[in-house]
Amino acid sequence: MTCILRVNEMTYTQVDSSGLFAPESIFKLGPITFDMNEGETIAIIGNNGSGKTLTGKALAGAITPSSGSIEFLENNAENEANRHKHPIRMILQHSVDSMNPAVSIGSVFQNTLKLNTNLSEAQRQQKIEDTLVMVGLLREHYYYYRHMLSDGQQQRVALARALLLDPRIIVADEPFAALDPSVRSQTVNLILDLQKNLGLGFVFISHNIGIVRHVSDRVLVMDDGKIIEQGKTSEVFANPKQALTQKLVQAHFNLVERHFSLL
């Protein structure tokens, strides 16, 4: 297996103050240490406020760690080809909400490519259309606006936007939470196909233990800013060591049993 990401002793301190007279709130993330192999999916689970999203943002470069390192590894043959590529990109739960509703999908994507590549306008349009098709959309969606898309199509646009700069790793933070079950299933299968075809690594942040079991190779369990348990997904779920992991796994199985009891 080829290691493509190494996170070593990463920490981050978040300071929040909700008002002039409110006490300052300090959240300390880490130290976080793990690595990722090419084509692997690592899931991060835990309760709200455990540090999952902060970890994802740090990996994607949205925040700068206070200490430690995040190292993306390439072999020498890839260095020149990937020099203008962003190795890690992020999909948020409501990624499409950040897109200007008055600007077409194609225009938004054109701006991304203008800022980050040396492609000509024709090359940019071809790249955008090919990426839209890759995620199951039509070339004509280049001319669509956000309000013209269904929830499932909007999520595919968010995925296309993340893929546009040819990353090696996608960080997906609760990407399916707002989707209905049938659309969610289609999107999960799409991601699995893309991972197989492109050799992508995925960092998958989710509360949905069922999807985590289905898509991930390894799982990290977080609590209060720290990884409290990690390992192969099948092994962690079959024999959870920590009380929080046991609680999360049991809640999932209780939900599954309740679902089948109603059939």
Topology:
Layout: E1 3-16, E2 25-37, E3 41-46, H1 52-60, E4 67-72, H2 76-79, E5 88-91, H3 105-116, H4 121-134, H5 151-163, E6 169-173, H6 181-198, E7 201-205, H7 209-215, E8 218-223, E9 226-232, H8 233-238, H9 243-261
Parallel strand pairs: 3-7, 3-8, 5-6, 6-7
Antiparallel strand pairs: 1-2, 1-4, 8-9
Helix pairs in contact: 3-4, 4-5
Protein name: ATP-binding cassette domain-containing protein
Membrane topology: Peripheral membrane protein
GO molecular function: ATP binding
Structure characterization notes:
- The protein is α/β, with parallel strands linked by helices.
- It has one domain: 3-Layer(aba) Sandwich (Rossmann fold), CATH 3.40.50.300.
- Helix content is 39%, strand content 25%.
- The protein is built from nine helices and nine strands.
- A six-stranded mixed sheet has the order 5-6-7-3-8-9, sandwiched between helices.
- Strand 8 and strand 9 form a beta hairpin.
- Helix 3 packs across helix 4.
- The longest helix is centred in the last third of the chain and has 19 residues.
